[in-house]
Amino acid sequence: MIKTNKIDEQKPKTVAIVGAGIIGLCIGLQLVKRGFQVTLYDPNGVANKCSFGNAGHFATEQVFPLANRSLLPKLPKMLLDPNGPLRIELRYLFKAMPWFTRFVLNMTQRKQQQLTSALRSLNEPSLAAYERLLDNSYDVFISSKGSLLTFENADFNEVESVKNHYASQGVNVQLLTQQDVLELEPNLSHNIKYALLFKEVAHSADPHALCLHLFDEIQSRGGRFIQERVEHISSTTEGEVIKLANNNNAIFDKVIIASGVWSKSLAKQLGFSVPIDAERGYHSMLNMENPITRPVASADRQFIITPMDNGLRLAGTVEFAGVDAKENHARATMLLTHANALIPATQSQQIESTWMGCRPSLPDSLPVIGVSPRNKNIIFAFGHQHLGLTQGAITSELVADLLQDIQPSITLTPYRIDRF
C-alpha cells in the first residue's frame, strides 16, 4: 500500500504522547510531519532519563536477544565480581525473580530464532528510518563510522565463531587482527588480540542534543509539551481523557504510551500485566580529547566507550535494584578501570561526572509496539531495552502507519502487548 502524509478528514487528528524520551520524540516528530496535532507529556522534562545518558550507539548489530544459554554458566562469576557487568540488589532479588524466570524461558532454540528475527526486523531499517525522519540534519547528529567489539582473551577460532554468528544474520562484520585494530584506532591497547568491525553501525556524539533537536522540530511544527505526569486514561464518547497529576484533564482522539519502564502502571490500568523491569545502566564521563573515532565495546568486560562532543563516555553494566533506588556510584566509577585496560591514555584521567538511567526491559528483549486489543485509540510503544536510541525512528514510522490505517512495513505480531 502506498504511504501518504495526508490525513483522511474522517480520521482522528489530535494525539497525546505519554513520554518525551527518544521514542516519544521520534513519534512526535513523525506525527507532526504527517499532519497530526501532537501534545507530549512527561513529568521529567524532555529526554532527561535514559535518552540523556545512553552510550549514543545505534546498535544495529545487536540482533540477538539478551536471554542466551551461554550466559547461564557465567552468571555466578559475573555476580560475584564487584567490577562485573551484572549486579542484583539482594533486597530486590525476590521481586525480580518472576522477570528472570521468564528471561530463562526465552533461552530455547525456537524462542531464540523467533526473537532474533523480530529484533533484526527492527534493527535493519533503523538508520534509514532516521535518515527519513531527520532529513538534512542526519549527518549533523549521526556519525556512520561503524563500531568495534574487542577481544583480549579469546583465540582466533572463538572470535571467528562469533563473527560467523553475526554474519549468519546478515550483519556486515569484519574480523580484525591486532595490527588491523591498531591501524584503525592506534590509541587502543596492545592487550587487544582481535576485534570485530561492524561496518553499518552509527553513533551520536551527543544523544541528548539529538533529542533536543527532535523536540525543537516538533515545536516548530506546532507540537506542544506539558511537563506533567499522566495518572489516568479513560474513554468517553468524546475521546480519550487524560487525567494529569495536577488534576487537569485533556481529551484526545488517540493516546500513545511511550514512557519506558513507567509505562507499566498505565498498561496495568488499561488491563495488561506487562513484565517490564528497569535494567539500570551507568555512565562515566572523562573530560579529555577523544583518543578514538568510533564506539569501542569489550566482549571481555561487557561495556562500551563512545567518543562524545564533550569527552569520552564509558557506559554499560546492568543492575537490578528497582526504579526508585539511589544511584550506586561504584557501578559508574568502576568503568574507568575497564577503560584503563583498553585505552592507556585514560589512565591519567579522572571521572568528571557519573549518571544512571533505567532501561525499560522485557524478558524477551522485544519492545511492545501496537494498538491495544482492548481500545483501538490506544497505541503502545515502549520497552525497547538497550535499543531505544537504535529503534526510535523505525518505531515512529510503525506507529504513524497504524494511526493512518496504513499497513506497517513490519509485521507487528511479535511485539503485541498480550504476548505475555
UniProtKB/TrEMBL annotation:
<dbReference type="InterPro" id="IPR006076">
    <property type="entry name" value="FAD-dep_OxRdtase"/>
</dbReference>
<dbReference type="InterPro" id="IPR036188">
    <property type="entry name" value="FAD/NAD-bd_sf"/>
</dbReference>
<keyword id="KW-1133">Transmembrane helix</keyword>
<dbReference type="GO" id="GO:0005737">
    <property type="term" value="C:cytoplasm"/>
</dbReference>
<keyword id="KW-0812">Transmembrane</keyword>
<protein>
    <submittedName>
        <fullName>FAD-binding oxidoreductase</fullName>
    </submittedName>
</protein>
<dbReference type="Pfam" id="PF01266">
    <property type="entry name" value="DAO"/>
</dbReference>
<feature type="transmembrane region" description="Helical">
    <location>
        <begin position="12"/>
        <end position="32"/>
    </location>
</feature>
<dbReference type="GO" id="GO:0016491">
    <property type="term" value="F:oxidoreductase activity"/>
</dbReference>
<keyword id="KW-0472">Membrane</keyword>
<feature type="domain" description="FAD dependent oxidoreductase">
    <location>
        <begin position="15"/>
        <end position="402"/>
    </location>
</feature>
<keyword id="KW-0560">Oxidoreductase</keyword>
